[in-house]
Known about the structure:
This protein has 267 residues and is an alpha/beta fold. 42% of the residues lie in helices and 16% in strands. It contains 12 helices and 9 strands. The protein has helices at residues 2-6, 22-31, 46-57, 72-76, 92-99, 113-116, 163-166, 179-190, 194-208, 221-232, 237-246, 253-266, and strands spanning 36-39, 61-65, 77-82, 85-90, 102-106, 128-131, 136-139, 145-150, 170-173. A 5-stranded parallel beta sheet has the order 2-5-8-1-9, sandwiched between helices. A hairpin with a 4-residue loop joins strand 6 and strand 7. The longest helix has 15 residues, at 194-208. It is elongated. The structure holds adenosine-5'-triphosphate and magnesium ion (MG). Magnesium ion (MG) binds at residues 46-47, 106. This is Nitric oxide reductase NorQ protein.
Amino acid sequence: MKDMIEQYRVTDEPYYRAVADEVDLFEAAYAAKMPVMLKGPTGCGKTRFVEHMAWKLGKPLVTVACNEDMTASDIVGRFLLDADGTRWQDGPLTFAARHGAICYLDEVVEARQDTTVVIHPLTDNRRVLPLEKKGELLNAHPDFHLVISYNPGYQSLMKDLKQSTKQRFGALDFNYPEHATEVEIVAHESGVTPEDADKLVSIAERARNLKGHGLDEGISTRMLIHAGSLIAGGIAPVAACHMALVRPITDDPDMRDALDAAVGTYF
Length: 267
Ligand SMILES: Nc1ncnc2c1ncn2[C@@H]1O[C@H](COP(=O)(O)OP(=O)(O)OP(=O)(O)O)[C@@H](O)[C@H]1O
Ligand SMILES: [Mg+2]
């Protein structure tokens, strides 16, 4: 088991450019054993931030991508049949709680509500996880920490987190970084020149203004890194932007032409 947890250790520093005081706040929340919720649009650095914090705190990181088919057993654990009969296998949440890892439940609202309530006893001062099928009440390891992410834009009222879940967490708002910071990140991650990174960020800023006016979501930092990587790999900037920035986010011909025109004003 000890060896298994080692696989989850973050050994090399993940590059993370802090945008405000989120690093200090996360460390304080960790010390206070306060679970943390990361809110923000897709591709703005939430996952990278958790990876960086796990590295900084020297804790293993167990990540679970939540989906609507997920059951409580998928995260808590279940009995498996093998040659010698049945054997209990910890799910990722239990594994993290037992061994003192940071557990990151990504897009937690996607999971069914019976799944989200299993985290309740873990995220108040009890810090326990009842493994009902196994008849075990697991006391969380003192190093265990729970982090969840969610994108407030995507939820219908039906699928929001319950207040009783939300109120167990401290929350950090994430968003696209301000211009100069985002230029730095895009240049660093993609290898594109700072001049071209600057143009990419400017294109994204224009597109972000169209959110809610024909676009569901703005061009993310992740997409800018895609475009930058294509450019750094020798693709003409206009073609790179069409492929990495414009085509993925719209199927509407008018919106596509408007975004292509924005690309044309910079490249
Ligand atoms: N502040 C930052 N410092 C360093 N890299 C960043 C930062 N913000 C974004 N990035 C880059 O953007 C990419 C996308 O970020 P990330 O995968 O963390 O997004 P996310 O918010 O988790 O998105 P999703 O909600 O879709 O999972 C990262 O791989 C990283 O290269
Ligand atoms: Mg993510």
